[in-house]
Amino acid sequence: MSFAAPLFLLALLALPAGAALHALAQRRRRRYAVRFPGVPLAALALALARPEATVAVPVEQASVMLVTDTSRSMTATDVAPDRLSAARSAAERFLDEAPDELRAGAVAFSDSAYVLQPPTTDHDQVRAALAGLVADGGTATGDGLDAALRALEPPEGDRRPPAAVVLLSDGKQTTGRDATEVAQEAGRLKIPVYTVALGTPDGVVDGMLPVPPDPQALAAIARASGGQAFEASDADQLTAVYERLGSQLGTRKETREITAAFAGAGILLLGGALIGSVRWLGRLP
């Protein structure tokens, strides 16, 4: 918590002096003792200082594209029940955690990339698009990012709203545009790419072909775009990452004044103290 007018906090320094004078007065005139309203006055002094709190508020018109690797390696079962199913479930949890105002879309890529769902506030449409994902083919990571950036382009003449990309992949790029170059383009557009490397070094397909993840390449993509890189070796870790991103990407930190709460509390407490004093004095002979 911070204060917009901190000089008013100096009023709190008067409270100890007031309490001492009050104690002295009580010793001299115990018959007419009145409780010193220190707490109410402190609350009012804090209200004058205009306290502020930092809260998370939805970002209006913010858009996030979920870019999912659907290459053959996503059939590996080192992440139960398999990598693609875990990715789909985590994306659904992302949508559960994201604010309703967040515009979400989906891109899938293997040998090529295609937009499953342009950005929309109807998150059920995105869930339906993700439900049809099938794993096969190579890994065109750069093409997937490029498709996401094109889907995030605003209509001509419109202001570009806040946007981000969440890229989930499990292996090295094998075809298509260079992913780091596309990430640099995303950085110039102020669209950070958050990467998630899925899988373990022991992952295989067809019982023998190793398909380890490539966290270094994905981390380079994140750095080039101004985003952040994550790693997930199991479904629980992946879900935790997506839940965190869901609540993070659709909100921004905003400082709001909370003076009314302190002022109201001070007035109520002061009123209670005065009422109590009147009742107490009314009982004295």
Let me know the number of strands.
Answer: 11
Strand proportion, as a percent range, falls in: 15-25%
Average pLDDT score: 79
Tally of domains: 2
What is the structural class? alpha/beta
- CATH fold topology of the largest domain: Rossmann fold
Strand order of the largest sheet: 5-4-3-6-7-10
Number of helices: 9
Taking all Cα atoms into account, the compactness measure Rg is 29 Å
Describe this structure in words.
The protein is of the alpha/beta class. It has two domains: 2-53 and 256-282; 60-249, Rossmann fold (3-Layer(aba) Sandwich), CATH 3.40.50. The chain contains nine helices and eleven strands. The strands form three sheets. A six-stranded mixed sheet has the order 5-4-3-6-7-10, with helices on both faces. α3 runs antiparallel to α4 (123-131), α5 packs parallel to α6 and α6 packs parallel to α7 (215-225).
Descriptors:
single chain; 285 residues; alpha/beta; Rossmann fold; 2 domains; six-stranded mixed sheet; three-stranded antiparallel sheet; 42% helix; globular
In brief, what are we looking at here?
This protein folds into two domains: 2-53 and 256-282; 60-249, Rossmann fold, CATH 3.40.50.410. The protein has helices at residues 14-28, 38-48, 83-97, 123-131, 141-151, 179-188, 215-225, 235-249, 259-282, and strands at residues 2-3, 51-58, 63-69, 103-109, 113-120, 163-169, 193-198, 204-205, 209-210, 229-232, 251-257. Helix content is 42%, strand content 21%.
